[in-house]
Specification:
Layout (H helix, E strand, L loop, with lengths): L1 E7 L9 E5 L3 H5 L7 E5 L7 E8 L9 E4 L1 H7 L6 E6 L6 H8 L6 H12 L5 H14 L3 H13 L12 E5 L9 H11 L3 E5 L9 H8 L6 H11 L1 E5 L7 H13 L4 H14 L4 E8 L8 H17 L3 E8 L7 E2 L1 H12 L7 H15 L10 H10 L2 H13 L11 E6 L4 E6 L1 H10 L9 E4 L6 E2 L4 E7 L2 H13 L3 E4 L2
Parallel strand pairs: 1-5, 2-4, 7-10, 8-9, 10-11
Antiparallel strand pairs: 1-6, 2-5, 3-4, 3-6, 12-15, 13-17, 14-16, 14-18, 15-17
């Protein structure tokens, strides 16, 4: 094996191990390396090698001949100081790639196949190209329901599991696709104020303008280590944290990093992703929200029922008490789309502000009520009224403030984007429909969720009468390029359908 000296390269390659070698390096020629080859990097003590995808550079300020540059992620994995000699060689292709090829050909895979694939992904044996091939193969050929179960179990076993020593640990998840649907941040303080344990770990947005973690980050720290999560939950009965720091089903986080730019979210992969995270987080009782609508992820009642059955099948075999509700997904929920604007909506509801969006409040109460009914002491049908009393009394607000303080209040919460464009009605009429996909797209083009203040602020909802020139919604952005992208998209399709009043 050839020997090179380590050099850190300050590049965040986002969950992919990348190494850099100069084109004039003797090793590059003698070993027959090519760009995008996978290489094994061996420490001098011949321990377990680290695998990385090789990039070739021509700039000695990045990596000089005789050096091996490493991106931040792989350099941290090796844990060796700069200049340390390491040995490199061609990596052996992961054995599980054979299963990926069989999946692409339409074959159903076994439990062992999925465990092998997930193990190799966690050990960085897959490049992003190979992971994309796996995801596309699964999306195109579909899953049998036992395959979804195998994938779920494999992803749970890929990382750590949280234990809460409680008979009832509640959680809730929406499959997404509805902008502004920030009910979780209302449900958690309501349920915790009742006394049910609800340690909420959430992902960041995949294809939406904001996830729960993105929005909660406007108010408080969400990157919590497991020890701090336990401490907060023990004291407050709940938290609202990002699940990535806890190493819960880490294979899912790696796959999400590939899914995001591809805007992929196939049903089987989605069920495995959601349930693996919930099982790993220690949940015993779970409520799943499936919004149904013409521009939602799920567009037919038949499709919603199929998805519900798949959730129930896998959840039952993972020992989860699971309830699935199908909700109205015909338009965005609340007014804000984007982290700052959605956080504003949440706090307005918690404060019982007269300006609070009533649809967000009502949906949160309905879902919170269903979770409260997991409690054996709550009679069926009474959950909604208990949730409403907790919210109206201010107990939910007090609990949310306590959770924010415990996690670490954001001392400088971001504001809505300073660049504002009003989108107005082209004629008189009544709002007949709002396109969820288009509104989400406009908000993402404006910079959400990475730019917390970016997004769309709805003024009119379905059923509202409008006059020509009246404001339908406002676009917020922080950067001119994003602002122009969002304005251009809105000019081509504003996302609203008006009918004659």
């Amino acid at each position: 094996m050839a020997t090179l000296k380590l050099r850190p390269v300050a590049i965040d390659t986002y969950r992919e191990n990348v190494a850099y070698m100069h084109r004039a390096c003797n090793v590059y020629h003698s070993e027959g390396f090519q760009a995008l080859n996978k290489i094994e990097i061996h420490k001098e003590d011949n321990g377990t090698p680290v695998i990385a995808v090789l990039n070739i550079v021509d700039d000695e300020t990045i990596t000089a001949p005789g050096e091996l540059g490493l991106s931040e992620q792989v350099f941290d994995q090796l844990g060796l100081p700069p200049g340390t000699p390491v040995k490199v060689r061609h990596a052996t292709p992961p054995a599980s790639l054979d299963a990926v090829h069989r999946k692409i050909d339409g074959e159903a895979l076994s439990r062992e196949d999925y465990f092998g694939i997930i193990q190799d992904i966690v050990e960085n044996r897959y490049s992003k190209i190979e992971m994309a091939a796996f995801l596309v193969g699964c999306a195109e050929t579909g899953f049998e329901r036992d395959e979804v179960l195998h994938l779920t179990r494999a992803m749970v076993e890929s990382g750590d599991r949280l234990e809460w020593s409680e008979p009832l640990v509640a959680d809730k998840h929406c499959i997404g696709g509805i902008p502004g649907n920030r009910t979780t941040m209302l449900i958690v303080p309501i349920v915790a104020a009742h006394g049910i344990c609800m340690p909420k770990t959430s992902s960041r947005a995949i294809t939406s303008p904001a996830g729960t973690a993105d929005t909660m980050e406007v108010l408080a720290e969400v990157d919590l280590p497991p020890e701090k999560m336990h401490e907060i939950v023990q004291r407050e009965r709940a938290c609202l944290a990002w699940g990535g720091t806890a190493r819960l089903a880490p294979a899912d986080d790696i796959l999400i990093a590939v899914e995001r730019p591809l805007s992929m979210d196939s049903p089987g992969q989605m069920v495995a992703s959601i349930l693996s995270k919930k099982v790993a987080a220690g949940s015993s009782h779970l409520l799943i929200d499936i919004p149904l609508g013409p521009t939602a992820k799920v567009r037919s009642h038949q499709e919603a029922l199929r998805l519900r059955k798949l959730f129930e099948y896998v959840g039952d075999r993972m020992s989860l008490t699971l309830e699935v509700v199908i909700t109205d997904g015909t338009q965005p929920v609340g007014r804000g789309i984007g982290p700052v604007l959605e956080a504003r909506d949440v706090m307005q509801v918690l404060r019982n502000d007269p300006l609070a969006p009533m649809d967000l409040r009502e949906k949160a109460l309905q879902l919170a009520g269903r979770i409260l009914e997991f409690d054996a002491d709550v009679r069926g049908g009474q959950g909604y009224f208990i949730a409403r009393d907790i919210l109206d009394s201010g107990r939910a607000l007090a609990k949310m403030e306590a959770i924010v303080e415990a996690q670490g209040r954001n001392p400088h919460p971001p504001e809505p984007g300073r660049l504002v464009q009003e989108i107005t009605a082209p004629r008189d009429g009544r709002v007949a429909a709002i396109d969820n996909l288009q509104m989400a797209s406009i908000a993402r083009l404006a910079g959400a969720p990475l730019d917390k203040g970016a997004g769309v602020d709805l003024v009119c909802k379905v059923g509202d009468p409008v006059r020509r020139g009246e404001v339908l919604y406002r676009i917020h952005a922080d950067f001119p390029a994003n602002f122009d992208f969002a304005r251009d998209a809105a000019a081509q399709n504003d996302g609203y359908t008006l009918e004659q009043d």
